[in-house]
Specification:
The chain is built from 21 helices and four strands. It has three domains: 147 residues, no CATH class; 122 residues, Winged helix-like DNA-binding domain superfamily/Winged helix DNA-binding domain (Arc Repressor Mutant, subunit A), CATH 1.10.10; 237 residues, no CATH class. Helix 2 runs antiparallel to helix 3, helix 2 crosses helix 4 and helix 4 crosses helix 5. It is mainly α and 623 residues long. It has a four-stranded antiparallel sheet, with helices on one face.
Length: 623
C-alpha cells in the first residue's frame, strides 16, 4: 500500500534548517582540522598541501557540495524577497560568496549541543553580511537616527575613531583650552627616538585600523591567503568558487584598503621600518588621472599587501558580535529556513541513488517497449532455438498445467539475444512450419463444442449464444520468466486515458481471480476478446508476451476463463451495442503488488472481428 502513496508522503522532505544542521555537524570537525593545519607552524608547505588535499576529499565525501548548494539557494531566495534585494546596487552573488566564507571561518565555533544551526547561522553569518552590504548602499541603513545630544556625540566619536589623523592635529578645541599641543607631542615612547618610534607605531596602527574597516568576509580572505599562506586554489575549492574569482576578491580588498589608508600614506610612512623596502618600486604614488593623484598605486599596493600584513603583527579577524534576529528581515529568514529542503536525492545527493534511479528508468523504458509499442512494430520475440513439434491438444481441458518452452530440449545456439532472429533460424522455422502444418491447421480451426465450451447470452438476446474456444496453455509460447516490476504507466488501471471497456475488463479480472499472498513476478498476456469479454472464434490463442512463471501465467489465464464463465462484462454490450467490435487486449498482472492492468493492443482496423457471430474466415491477423 505504501507504493500508491505520493512521493512526498513516502519520503517526507526535511526543512532547510534541518538539512544544514545535519551537514554542519558532519563538516565541523573537518573544517576545524583544516584551520589547525593552516595555522600549524611546524609543517612544511608540502605537508600542508597533502593534509589539506586529504581534508578536502573527506569534506567532499561528507556533503560539502550539497552544503554549498543549499546555502546558495537560500541566499538567492533571501535576496529575492528581502527589502534591499531589489536595489540595483545590491549584489546577490556577492552575498552568497561572503556567506560561504563566513560559514567556513566560523563553523568551528558552532556548538551543536547548545543550539540548532539555523538560529546560529542567522545571527552570526547571514544577517551581519546582509547588513554590511546594505550599509555600502546607504551608510545609515538599518541605524536609528540619534535623537539626543549623547547619541549624536557617540556617533561622531565612532566616525572620528576610524578617520586618519595627523600628528600635527591639535588635541581639544581652541575655544576652550587656548593654545593646544599637537597629537604627536602627547604620545610617549619607551625606546628609540620618540619621533621615529611614534611614527612607526602610528603607521602600523593606521594599517591595522584600515584592515578592521574592511568587510568581515574580505578580512577573512586576506587572512587565509596573505596571513595563513593558503593557496588561492585551495581557498577557491573550499568555498566553491573559481581561483579567478578569489583573485578578483583579493584585488578588490586591496583596492578598498588603499582607499581607506588615504592619499598621504606613502608620504607619511614611506621612510619607516614598517614600510622600508616596500616603497622601492612597489609602493609609489599614483600617476594616473587627476581624480587618482595622491592615492596609493593600486597595482603596487596589491603586490606589497602580503608583506605589510605579516609586518603589522595582525593576529587575524576578530569576529563581530551577533546581530539581533528580530524585525521583518529576521522573520523572513526564519520562514525560509523552515521551508522544505531541496530534493538532493535526485539532484546532487547520493551517487548510489542516482545510479539506481537511472537503472530503474531503463528497465521501465524496456517494458514500456513491450507493452505500448504496437505488435506490428515489435520485433519477433521468439528465440532462435529449435523446438520439437507440439502434439495437438484440442481436447485438453483449460486447467492443464502450462509447459514452459524453457523446459523443452533446445539446440545449442550462440545468439546473445532472444529477440534477434538470424537467417538460419528463419530457415529452421520454415521447415518446422512445413512439418507441423497439420498441427497448426488443427489449432487455427474453430473447435467443436465440448464440455468446456461456455455459452454467454448477450443483453436482449436470451437464446443467442456462441461457443467459446478453449484456451489451451500448451499452445502458448512463453518467454523466460521475469520477476521485475512493471512501470507505473503499465500497472495503473485507473488511468483516464485507458478506454472504459479495458478498465471494466481489468476490474472484472481482479475480482474474478484474487492473487494469493506470497506470489511474485508479473506477466503480460495478449488475447482477442469481444467487447463483452468473450473470445472470438477463429482468433489466435492467447499469447504470453511477458512470462511471470507458471503460477502467474496460470493465474491470468484462469482469470480469463473464470470471467468468461461468469459473464462479468455482459452489461457492457448493452451500453456499446452500436459500436460493438472485438479487440486485441493485453492483460498484465503484477502479482507481488496485486495489480492488474488492461489495455487494447494495436490491430488492423480493416480486419477487426465482430464480438459475436464471427466466422472462421473473419479472423484477426497479427504480426
Amino acid at each position: 500500500m505504501d507504493n500508491i502513496l505520493p512521493f512526498e508522503q513516502r519520503f517526507p522532505r526535511q526543512s532547510k534548517a534541518e538539512q544544514l544542521h545535519q551537514l554542519a555537524v558532519v563538516l565541523q570537525p573537518i573544517e576545524r582540522k583544516r584551520q589547525q593545519v593552516v595555522a600549524a607552524a611546524g609543517l612544511s608547505s608540502t605537508e600542508k598541501i597533502q593534509c589539506l588535499g586529504r581534508l578536502e576529499r573527506e569534506a567532499s565525501r561528507a556533503g560539502l557540495g550539497e552544503f554549498h548548494g543549499v546555502l546558495e539557494r537560500l541566499c538567492r531566495e533571501f535576496c529575492r524577497r528581502s527589502p534591499a534585494g531589489s536595489h540595483p546596487r545590491f549584489d546577490a552573488e556577492l552575498l552568497s560568496e561572503e556567506v560561504k566564507l563566513m560559514v567556513h571561518a566560523r563553523l568551528p565555533q558552532f556548538d551543536p549541543e547548545r543550539g540548532h544551526f539555523g538560529p546560529w547561522f542567522k545571527v552570526y553569518v547571514l544577517l551581519p553580511v546582509y547588513k554590511r552590504l546594505c550599509s555600502e548602499i546607504d551608510v545609515d541603513w538599518g541605524r536609528r537616527v540619534p535623537q539626543t545630544d549623547g547619541g549624536r556625540v557617540r556617533r561622531w566619536l565612532r566616525r572620528w575613531a576610524h578617520a586618519p589623523l595627523s600628528l600635527d592635529a591639535p588635541v581639544g578645541t581652541t575655544q576652550q583650552d587656548g593654545d593646544l599641543p599637537a597629537l604627536g607631542e602627547t604620545v610617549a615612547s619607551k625606546e628609540g627616538s620618540p619621533e621615529n618610534q611614534l611614527l612607526e607605531d602610528q603607521c602600523r596602527e593606521r594599517f591595522l585600523r584600515a584592515l578592521e574597516r574592511l568587510a568581515e568576509a574580505e578580512r577573512l580572505l586576506v587572512e587565509r591567503v596573505h596571513l595563513r599562506g593558503e593557496r588561492q586554489q585551495e581557498v577557491a575549492r573550499s568555498v566553491r568558487l573559481t581561483p579567478g574569482r578569489v583573485s578578483q576578491k583579493l584585488k578588490r580588498a586591496a583596492e578598498r584598503l588603499a582607499e581607506i589608508l588615504g592619499e598621504n600614506f606613502e608620504d607619511d610612512c614611506g621612510g619607516t621600518a614598517f614600510c622600508r623596502g616596500l616603497s622601492e618600486g612597489r609602493l609609489q604614488p599614483a600617476t594616473g588621472p587627476a581624480g587618482a593623484s595622491g592615492t596609493v598605486a593600486r597595482a603596487a599596493f596589491e603586490q606589497a599587501l602580503p608583506e605589510l600584513v605579516r609586518r603589522s603583527g595582525w593576529q587575524g579577524t576578530v569576529f563581530a558580535p551577533p546581530e539581533l534576529a528580530g524585525g521583518p528581515v529576521g522573520e523572513l529568514l526564519d520562514e525560509l529556513l523552515a521551508g522544505p529542503a531541496p530534493s538532493q536525492v535526485w539532484a546532487s545527493g547520493s551517487r548510489a541513488l542516482q545510479v539506481a534511479s537511472a537503472a530503474t528508468g531503463a528497465v521501465a523504458a524496456a517494458w514500456a517497449l513491450f507493452v505500448f509499442v504496437p505488435s506490428e512494430l515489435q520485433p519477433p520475440l521468439r528465440s532462435p532455438i529449435e523446438h520439437r513439434p507440439q502434439p495437438a491438444t484440442a481436447g485438453r481441458p483449460f486447467s492443464t498445467p502450462i509447459k514452459s518452452a524453457a523446459k523443452q530440449p533446445i539446440a545449442a545456439t550462440s545468439s546473445p539475444s532472444p529477440r534477434t532472429v538470424s537467417a538460419a533460424s528463419s530457415a529452421r522455422s520454415a521447415q518446422q512450419s512445413a512439418s507441423s502444418a497439420t498441427s497448426q491447421t488443427q489449432r487455427s480451426m474453430p473447435r467443436p463444442q465440448d464440455k468446456h465450451g461456455l455459452s454467454i447470452s448477450k443483453a436482449g438476446t436470451a437464446g443467442a449464444s456462441k461457443r467459446v474456444q478453449n484456451f489451451s496453455k500448451t499452445e502458448t509460447k512463453r518467454p523466460p520468466a521475469n520477476t521485475g516490476r512493471l512501470p507505473d504507466r503499465v500497472r495503473e488501471p485507473d488511468d483516464l486515458s485507458i478506454p472504459s471497456d479495458a478498465r471494466n475488463l481489468c476490474a472484472a479480472l481482479a475480482a474474478a481471480a484474487p492473487v494469493p499472498a506470497g506470489l511474485a513476478g508479473f506477466a503480460v498476456i495478449e488475447a482477442t476478446l469481444g467487447a463483452d469479454g468473450t473470445p472470438v472464434e477463429g482468433s489466435p490463442s492467447p499469447e504470453i508476451i511477458v512470462s511471470g512463471g507458471e503460477q502467474v501465467d496460470a493465474l491470468v489465464l484462469g482469470a480469463l476463463q473464470t470471467l468468461l464463465a461468469a459473464g462479468r462484462l455482459e452489461d457492457l454490450s448493452t451500453r456499446r451495442e452500436a459500436t460493438l467490435r472485438s479487440g486485441r487486449y493485453r492483460v498484465a498482472l503484477e502479482a507481488e503488488q496485486h495489480r492488474w492492468s488492461c489495455h487494447r493492443a494495436a490491430q488492423d482496423p480493416q480486419k477487426s472481428v465482430p464480438a459475436s457471430g464471427a466466422s472462421s474466415a473473419a479472423t484477426n491477423k497479427y504480426e
